[in-house]
Amino acid sequence: MKLRDAPSACPSLWRWLPCPPAELRLDLVLSSGQSFRWWESSPGTWTGVLGGRVWTLRQDGDRLWYTVYAAKLNAAETERILRDYFQLDVGLSALYHAWGAADPLFRKVANDFPGVRVLRQDPVECLFSFICTSNNHISRITAMIERLCQAFGRRLCCLDSRPFHAFPSLSALTGADAEARLRALGFGYRAKFVSGSARAIAEGLGPEGLCQLRSAPYAEARRVLCALPGVGAKVADCVCLLSLDKAEAVPVDTHVWQIARQRYGVALGGKSLTPRAYQEIGDFFRELWGPRAGWAQAVSTPLPGTLVPHPKLCPPHHVPIPGAVLC
């Protein structure tokens, strides 16, 4: 790893942990629409906000290099944060083998998209990020989240003339003028959902209670989330999968529904994605892929609500998003 490849601000210290590409591909995971806080600061180098701190990550062979800016963390703590965020204690190669043995279509995708794993994000950040994903695409969602953090979040530092902010606290989004400010930032109808969900959580289970849903059964966590303004089944499943440890959650939208029907031959009646069809599709993939069905879906289909650009519209250096083969 060459320090000159990092942002111009001098990092306190570069460290690394062993992590082969078969277990993690930063370029695929951080650009796939799971999180919207990472920026490719130079080719193969990613800078973003994690846990209220600014990080730069880069892979070199079987090593994951990382540094944290303006933070006093020892090596054990920084490694713990990264292992938790990328869920590195989960052996991905063995899962790929099992999914490929159960599903020939997955086997076709797996070789092109190695190292795609599910992130373990902060539940508050994940929830409000995915409320913004309805009828949206990754680049626009990323810009919206950036504006949200700049307007409501605490400033952390500035690298290469680019400011970085923490994700807003729940209290910051419950102000009387929050909805109006969000509309001024271009959130449209989502502004009501963001401010409304923030108030509902603050007046109800609180941020601690939201985190405690990690230990609740999947159906219970999903039910609680679906009671929030602007949270339907697919947003709830994204939050369950990406922040609440519900690896069996399979987010479904009309695109995933079409894949299930056309590629897998799942026979479901009707011309729309009804709640019953949604449940049946999720159950089908859970039976096919097993208890980590949501992880398998992250490889084989894009996350609902994060529209994948047509290949002809992508720049030549663009890395295909997982799911492009099946889609």
UniProtKB/TrEMBL annotation:
Major location (coarse): nucleus
SUPFAM superfamilies listed in its UniProt record: DNA-glycosylase (SSF48150), TATA-box binding protein-like (SSF55945)
CDD domains: ENDO3c
Matching InterPro entries: DNA_glycosylase (IPR011257), HhH-GPD_domain (IPR003265), HhH_base_excis_C (IPR023170), OGG_N (IPR012904), Oxidative_DNA_repair_enzyme (IPR052054)
The entry's keywords: DNA damage, DNA repair, Glycosidase, Hydrolase, Lyase, Multifunctional enzyme, Nucleus
Gene Ontology biological process terms, A to Z: base-excision repair, AP site formation; nucleotide-excision repair
Enzyme Commission no: 4.2.99.18
Domain HhH-GPD as annotated: residue spans: 132-298
Assigned GO CC terms: nuclear matrix; nuclear speck
Domain of life according to the entry: Eukaryota
GO molecular function: 8-oxo-7,8-dihydroguanine DNA N-glycosylase activity; class I DNA-(apurinic or apyrimidinic site) endonuclease activity; damaged DNA binding
Record field: transmembrane: none
Reactions the enzyme catalyzes: 2'-deoxyribonucleotide-(2'-deoxyribose 5'-phosphate)-2'-deoxyribonucleotide-DNA = a 3'-end 2'-deoxyribonucleotide-(2,3-dehydro-2,3-deoxyribose 5'-phosphate)-DNA + a 5'-end 5'-phospho-2'-deoxyribonucleoside-DNA + H(+)
SMART domains documented for this protein: ENDO3c
Compartment(s) of residence: Nucleus matrix; Nucleus speckle; Nucleus, Nucleoplasm
Function, as annotated: DNA repair enzyme that incises DNA at 8-oxoG residues. Excises 7,8-dihydro-8-oxoguanine and 2,6-diamino-4-hydroxy-5-N-methylformamidopyrimidine (FAPY) from damaged DNA. Has a beta-lyase activity that nicks DNA 3' to the lesion.
Family named by the database record: Belongs to the type-1 OGG1 family.
The protein, known as: N-glycosylase/DNA lyase
